[in-house]
Write a structure and sequence with these properties.
The longest helix has 28 residues. By secondary structure, this protein is of the alpha+beta class. The two termini are about 40 Å apart. Helix 1 packs antiparallel against helix 2. About 45% of the residues lie in helices and about 25% in strands. It has a five-stranded antiparallel beta sheet. It has a four-stranded mixed beta sheet with strand order 8-7-6-9, with no helix packed on it.
Length: about 160
């Protein structure tokens, strides 16, 4: 999980996954590997005798390999990229590109350490390593200084103080 700058002035921020997501990813990978092993063993043991066998085992192999590719891509290549024109969010093979000129404000929730980026009525919440929040905001402000940056502070009510 490293923050990098490349020669074309793009800045990369790796997406921080929760422990639950990482455990689920490992579970999916284990389940896919197990289904591949079971399919191969069943094909060796029983052969491909009927039309349904020709559909069932190869299809299960393809779906398992596809799921492994998706999960590995998500774990390896999930990042936010800021260049001179666009803010790009990439989750594995899926990329979304937003014009930085359309970003109106950024709010840091100090309770959850999550950034919310507003583009008019639209918004999205970013999950970064909390040490990178300031660097991320600075990278956006370097491109468009008129972005409004603020943060929330949790208020203590009377019951919490007592």
């Amino acid at each position: 999980m490293k923050n990098q700058s490349s020669p074309n002035k793009a800045t990369y921020f790796t997406i921080k996954f929760s422990k639950t997501i990482l455990v689920l990813a490992v579970a999916v990978l284990c389940l896919c590997v197990a289904s591949i092993v079971v399919s191969i063993l069943n094909m060796k043991r029983f052969g491909l005798n009927g039309f349904s066998d020709y559909l069932k085992y190869p299809f299960l192999l393809l779906v398992s390999v596809f799921c492994i590719a998706i999960v590995v891509a998500l774990l390896i290549k999930s990042q936010y990229i800021i260049d001179e024109t666009y803010f790009i969010s990439q989750y594995g093979f899926i990329k979304s590109r937003y014009e930085i000129e359309k970003i109106t404000s950024i709010v840091l929730d100090t309770d959850t350490n999550k950034l919310t980026v507003y583009m008019g009525e639209e918004f999205f919440v970013l999950s970064l390593n909390k040490e990178w929040n300031e660097k991320f905001v600075r990278a956006l402000l370097n491109v468009k200084p008129s972005i409004d940056y603020s943060f929330t502070v949790a208020e203590k009510n009377d019951t919490e103080e007592k």
